[in-house]
Amino acid sequence: MRTRRRGAKCRYTWNWITWTICAILSSVSGSAAPPDSLKLVWLSNTTLTCNDGSPTGYYFRRGSNSEHWVVYLEGGGYCWDTASCRARWRRRPALMSSTRWPRVRRAPALLSAERTANPLWHASNHVLLPYCSSDMWSGTRTATHAVGGFSFTGRLIVEGVLEDLLRAGLSGRLMFVGSSAGGTGVMLHVDAARRALRSKRIKVAAVSDSGWFLDRPARDRRVPAAAIARLGHSLWRGTPPNSCVRKHVKEPWLCYFGYRLYPHIRTPLFVFQYLFDSAQLAAEGVRAPRTRTQWEMVHKTGVALRTSLDSVRTVYAPACLAHGALARPEWLAINVSGISLPRALACWERRLGRAKKTHVRGGCAPRRLVEICSWPQCNGSCPRLRDPRTGEEVALATLLQSFGMDVHGAAAAMGIDAGAFSRMSHAELFPLLAPHV
Q1: Residues annotated as part of the active site
Q2: pLDDT one-digit tens code per residue, 245-273
């Protein structure tokens, strides 16, 4: 493995004096890594790059359990044609370039070395793949065939990282994890990774966090999701699994949608998916629902997501309006039917024989944990909703009122003052409403 060269992040500065100053400052400031951090390692295959041609790599920390590796694919959306890629470059250049990558990064929740933040995998070897290819980790378009100045090599980057990790001692068990676009990337890669590592006797399993998207029609003048996938597939030179492509020969881009791809995945997969995924809703044109009509649209999307998960063997689906969980500290608090997400993951991994035979507090969880209630935020462990305009938390009573609920009537029926009802927290109000859900 190649560690980052001194002054490497300064290579794009405009003259040698600036470069020298930057390199000196980088070497001084980077001498001591903060606790719970991952160190940047450049990919040995230098032909593979971010969108803008800057070098790519990964962040790494060796753990005390040499036989367990957690490889995490970051998410961050995608672009699908020249116009959307140029817009992405203007708004979010950090997702298309490595020029500002720090020497070290603080670990997200599931890659933390602290037991309190990461009770499952704190002792594992941790690998974080920053997302800078904008292609759902599926592209094979190298710099020599760039379009609009951008290359798309997400699939090749993942393969290159695995090759580097083998040289670094990858062995035992590999947990492939990803969130959002990274969650989709995990589903696209996991079977190929398992086959590639089979001869090394490395056991592979995967967790897809919020990467289960639907090709539902948009409710405004937006380009439909399937049309965007078709454009992206062509731009990226995408390579979904052959088993899925054979099923959709004329429309291979449909393999970017979880419910279409899942039947072709043979590697053990744990699917985490919020039933009211905010990224899915945004793709359908519902970003900040406030009216009863908008909430009815949200409900229909929830029904569609729930139905699409019917055939999934191992799934954890809270009825929350949110997106992405495993990289966030609140992943420890999420529960469905009283079973926490860490406990569900621990039980799943134990069933696979990929975890130590330790006692799981409360016994093992069912394979399928899909929220029973059918309206958003009915789960008391959901991440709090915030008004996108003010940043303030949206009270549950206000949320219910936007559904069309008569808050004053409900308060009167319960014998509660309407003002007190409106000020109640989620934890106080939900038990009163639960019998009526």
Answers
A1: 180, 277, 323
A2: 999 999 999 999 999 999 999 999 999 99
Find all residues with CB under 8 Å of 264, minimum gap 6, and list them: 191, 241, 243, 244, 247, 255
pTM of the predicted protein model: 0.84
Ordered by where they begin, the domains of the chain are: 37-352+365-383 (3.40.50), 384-436 (no CATH)
- 4-37 residue pLDDT tens: 443 444 444 444 444 444 444 444 444 456 778 9
Task: State the Rg of the chain over Cα.
Answer: 23
**Residues 385/330, Cβ–Cβ less than 8 Å:** no
